[in-house]
Design brief:
It contains 10 helices and 14 strands. The chain is of the alpha/beta class. The relative contact order is 0.06. The radius of gyration is 36 Å and the shape is elongated. The strands form 3 sheets. It has a 5-stranded antiparallel β-sheet with strand order 1-2-5-3-4. Strands 10-11-12-13-14 form a 5-stranded mixed β-sheet. A 4-stranded mixed β-sheet has the order 6-7-9-8. Helix 5 runs parallel beside helix 7 and helix 6 packs across helix 7. Helix content is about 55%, strand content about 15%. Helix 3 links the parallel strand 6 and strand 7. The protein starts with a helix and ends with a helix.
């Protein structure tokens, strides 16, 4: 049935795209209208090859026999019954049928879409290729914004937002067959973030200052933008009891960071930054980033800056000590080589003693730096558990762990290179001066 059904869907979709016919898909049947005799004869054949049942062709005068279809003119209609499918599965053959299904309430938790290459799992519905029998369990806990978004315009975000939220926000949904779902998902989720949908359908984020965005019903975002939208929407709609608080925080951040009047692209571009601010404020347990929040974050940034500055200073001290020790050892080697072979034996021993003292000096600076690293790591652990528990792990990693890690990498590189240089110069001095 696969290749035959694909040809059937392709033929009907081409006729619909050309404006030649209209299609109505129901739960158990499909009807194609306004066919001429040649088109009806071809479509009838494709239905038979795909093993659809109860095929009937008729015009205004009634039912037409199969062998007489091609002889008729305009205004023919073909109806066909769908093949038997498992219970709880809705089947879609055409693009227009898919669009119609998306514009009404979900009829099943699994929808087979002709032409789809891989399954797309949302919170509430799975869209998959025909005859894909993998088990699917819907997650009906997705929050609704119906009680917190004031809708003055013609179209709100809807109540069944779970069908627009991917179970994995980073999932790739660029298959052409899923495009009707993708553009509707972008529109619905962007509307769910607004505090008010005005009479002209613009989305209002009150701020202050307030910002407005114009979002159409055909927003086909780039893969990166769509993934960002899904991530923000997943956080916003994670919990029914918290959706009002989260929407207020997110809307305030969007209004603060965005342009005053923009389109969907402008709105999506500020979502990652807005989510970062909203999450920090939410985890801190207030409805906005208060002075205490800003002060705590400022203290944290200052502490991290001081740590990295101190580490840089230690690296410079190690570098200076290493350079001094290496050049001193080289000087002692040159001086020892210029002395006559029968010179005083104490000169070589004195040179080795000086080299050892310089090496111990470099080692003491390195040990001091390592001890400082251990001490700061302990203090940061204490900060994390007492002063900065309101920061999410991802935020803490980005603000503290990543910059500190990069500074420590530079420190350990300096320690490794310095140790190798000092050891090589001391070994050379020992060999030459000792001889």
């Amino acid at each position: 049935m696969g290749p035959s059904q694909s040809k059937l869907a392709e033929a009907i979709n081409k006729l619909v795209a050309a404006g030649r016919v209209t299609v109505t898909e129901a739960a158990t049947s499909i009807a194609v209208y306004q066919l001429n005799g040649t088109e009806a004869d071809s479509i009838y054949d494709l239905f038979e090859q795909a093993k659809w049942i109860n095929l009937v062709c008729r015009d205004a005068g009634g039912e037409i026999d199969r062998h007489q279809i091609v002889e008729n003119g305009e205004g023919l209609q073909i109806t066909a019954g769908r093949p038997t499918v498992p219970k709880g599965v809705e089947t879609i053959l055409t693009v227009s049928g898919f669009e119609s299904a998306l514009d009404r309430e979900p009829g099943a938790s699994v929808v087979w879409v002709e032409g789809l290459k891989a399954a797309i799992d949302t919170k509430l519905v799975r869209y998959s290729p025909w005859w894909s029998g993998d088990p699917f369990t819907p997650d009906e806990s997705t929050a609704s914004v119906a009680k917190v978004t004031r809708v003055l315009g013609r179209k709100g975000p809807g109540t069944h937002l779970g069908r627009w939220l991917l179970k994995s926000p980073a999932a790739v949904v660029q298959d052409e067959a899923i495009k009707p779902w993708r553009v509707r998902a972008a529109s619905r989720l962007l509307r769910s973030m607004a505090q008010e949908i005005e009479l002209d359908d613009r989305l209002l984020f009150k701020g202050p200052p307030s910002a407005r965005f114009t979002v159409t019903n055909q927003e086909d975002l780039t893969p990166a933008s769509f993934a960002a939208l899904q991530s923000v929407a997943s956080w916003l709609l994670e919990n029914e009891r918290e959706v009002e608080n989260r929407q207020g925080l997110l809307a305030a951040e969007i209004a603060r960071t965005a342009v005053r009047d923009g389109n969907a692209g402008d709105l999506v571009s500020v979502l990652p930054t807005a989510l970062e601010g909203a999450r920090i404020a939410y985890n801190f347990g207030v409805t906005q980033q208060s002075r205490d929040t800003l002060k705590a974050l400022g203290d944290l940034r200052k502490a991290v800056s001081d740590d990295t500055a101190k580490l840089s200073e230690t690296m410079r001290s190690i570098g200076a000590a290493v350079v001094g020790a290496v050049f001193a050892n080289i000087g002692l080697i040159v001086a020892r080589m210029t002395l006559p072979p029968n010179g005083s034996k104490f000169i070589g021993q004195a040179a080795i003693l000086v080299g050892v003292v310089l090496t111990v000096y470099v080692a003491s600076i390195i040990i001091s730096g390592i001890h400082y690293l251990w001490l700061q790591a302990y203090l940061r652990k204490e900060w994390r558990n007492s002063l900065y528990k309101f920061l999410a792990q991802d935020d803490y990693k980005r603000l503290v762990e990543v910059p500190v890690f990069r500074a420590e990498v530079g420190f350990w590189i300096m320690v490794g290179v310095g140790t190798i240089l000092v050891c090589i110069s001391l070994a050379a001095l020992w060999t030459i001066a000792g001889a």
